[in-house]
Amino acid sequence: MIGVAEAEARLAGMSEKRAAHARRVAAVCVELAKRFGADVEAARLAGLLHDVCREWPPEALLAAAVRHGIPVGPLECAQPVALLHGPVAAAELAAAGLDDATARAIALHTVGGAGMTTLEKCLYLADFSEPGREFPGAATVRLLAQTSLDDAVAEAARMSLASVLHKGRGIALGGVELYNELNDRLGRL
Ligand SMILES: [Fe+2]
Ligand SMILES: [Fe+2]
Fold this sequence. Notes:
By secondary structure, the protein is mostly helical. It is 69% helix and 0% strand.
């Protein structure tokens, strides 16, 4: 079983900057969980732990992904840090006793996917919109998150996809699935 004390110990092994980000994500994730009805302690843990593998070298992420049976295709090989740090962290933490619901939120926090739970959406949104995020659009997402989880996540997913397209990079399908699913639910396919 992993609790807040162990999460704090793991943060001590990360850079100050990353640990501070994780603490801000945890605070926002707790706030969102209270607002939209997810498990508050799971939200805190998910926020603290979501980037524990974010500073691993690409080769270590690829090796760990293979070891855990996480699918690795050309896209993951090309963008291992962006696409694998969440799934690898989830697998490593699940092996160390983290519960499945929190681990899945961590696995999906960067790209997203279909059928996300409230906890998973809270973490996705907290990572996208924590107060240290200053890119254009983060404020819009923060505002939407005051009233509608799905509206805020849909906008964050749209911006993430737009940014990937703008850079001309390959697109992870989970992000497209999340975007389409929420737009369908919001009546704007
Ligand atoms: Fe991350
Ligand atoms: Fe993060």
